Amino acid sequence: MPPKTKTKRRPANADQMAARAYRLAALDQDFLLSDPLRGARFLLEYEKAEHSLRAWGVRSTIVVFGSARTSPDGPPQHRRWYQEARHFGRIASERGGAMDAADGLRDNVICTGGGPGIMEAANRGAHDAGAPSIGFNIELPHEQGPNPYSTPDLTFQFHYFAMRKMHFAMRANALIIFPGGFGTLDELFELLTLRQNGKMAEDLPIILVDRAYWNSLINFQTMVDAGTISAQDVDLFGYAETAEEIWAALIARGLHDVPARQRRKLRSHPAGRRRSG
């Protein structure tokens, strides 16, 4: 006769050990994704990006916004915007301090929304220079993967638009706004409002690229004439047409032109500078 197999006895505490309540909180995805844990998830999105940015010594950024629909193979206007964004990403990385980490810190690192179009072009320019760059991607109903040019260790995916915007704002040394759609307008006015109300540095340069596009889209003078903004509010931003003009406008508005590998003293995080958040 074959030997009898022993029936494994069910532990007396099997129900307790299998219960969701017994899972370690940090490993319980159902718990972490539950509605009451929204605040904790919001904090985690802040901390994860902050941890990596600090590890790379990113002290300050140059944020580049613009349309995801712009293509290097698209209409002539789109090709021009793409090429200027790419050229700007390169010269800003070469001149702004992103490649120089001799003191353990990097300044004026190119930072985008991490997607295609203008975002890809700016990240690609930094990649051309051999510099790191940041991509703050966002989870969307229609999948938008990260472009292949942002630094992998500095490419993040966010669920919350608000936390993504906070990361854009808190290290920004300058904002460059290429032509774009609803998302670009949202980011532009969000940061103009912070600037207007003193929630960002008073000398933070904001440059709109392609004056003809912006003037045909928004009549800021109408707002001044109607008394909904002050006349000096239109001085919060300037215009430029090319990558070199963008860089010259940033320098004119207070950003330092810093050759790579030169020991530097930048305007980044000076004592008493007001930071967002």
Describe this structure in words.
With 277 residues, this protein is an alpha/beta fold. The chain has one domain: Rossmann fold (3-Layer(aba) Sandwich), CATH 3.40.50.450. Helix content is 39%, strand content 11%. The protein contains ten helices and seven strands. Strands 4-3-2-1-5-6-7 form a seven-stranded parallel β-sheet, with helices on both faces. Helix 7 links the parallel strand 5 and strand 6. Helix 4 runs parallel beside helix 5 and helix 4 packs across helix 10. The longest helix has 21 residues. The N and C termini lie far apart (77 Å). The C terminus is likely disordered.
The description of the largest β-sheet is: 7 strands, parallel
What is the CATH class designation? Alpha Beta
Q: Rg to the nearest angstrom? A: 23 Å
SS-based class: alpha/beta
The level of helicity is 25-40%
The coarse overall form would be elongated
Strand content: 5-15%
**Count of discrete domains:** 1
Quote the distance from N terminus to C terminus: 77 Å
State the CATH architecture.
3-Layer(aba) Sandwich
In order across it, which strands form the biggest sheet?
4-3-2-1-5-6-7
Number of strands: 7
**Average residue pLDDT:** 89
Low-confidence stretches: 259-277
H/I helix tally: 10
